[in-house]
Amino acid sequence: MKKCMMLAAAVATALLTAGCAKPAEKPKEEAAPAPPAVDLAAEESAIRNKSAEWMNFANAHDAASIAKNFAPDAITIYDGRVRRGAAEVQAGIEQDAKDRPNAVVAWSTTAVKVAASGDLAYETGNITLDPDGAAGKKPSQNGTYVTVWEKADGTWRVVADAGTDDEKKDSAAH
């Protein structure tokens, strides 16, 4: 019986000691480095610069350079005219240049909003198209647009561009 009591006491002591002992410390895992903060103001400025560059290409009737601003699967929608993909956008711009060789376009960005992730943004603004430029025989058309930009591989590209002629918009409201 004495042996049983001693064995029970030894087991109890071992359990108490194990229960009160500090657990072995696990090696601390290094925290994953925080992703770099996105400079939203710099991204907004980059989009405004790309938009201004695009307008210069438009007035030079440089369809190939304009098309480089578009993602391969981009879509444009202007007053019911839909173009899908950069190649179709480029072909449409080339046709527009043939149809209106003296056209002058100007737009002013009213807002750019960049997502916190820094890889998606939209731009809104007003656009004016003078269909015959300096000849001035046809009235200018004023409109409103929205452009969605996506940043991939460090470059902002247009994924969607849509707009409407304000005159058509006003008449549709009545």
Kindly provide the radius of gyration, computed on alpha-carbon positions and rounded to a whole number of angstroms: 32 Å
Q: Terminal Cα separation, in Å? A: 105 Å
What top-tier CATH class fits best?
Alpha Beta
Q: Extract low-pLDDT stretches.
A: 4-12
Rounded average pLDDT: 85
Class computed from helices, strands and strand pairing: alpha+beta
Shape: elongated
Number of strands: 6
Largest sheet: 6 strands, mixed
CATH architectural name: Roll
Strand content of the residues, in percent? Answer: 25-35%
Helix content: 25-40%
**Secondary structure tally, helices:** 5
- Give the tally of structural domains: 1
Give the strand order of the largest sheet, numbering strands 1, 2, ... along the chain. Answer: 2-1-6-5-4-3
Query: What is the H/E order?
Result: HHHEEHEEEEH
Fill in the CATH topology.
Answer: Nuclear Transport Factor 2, Chain: A
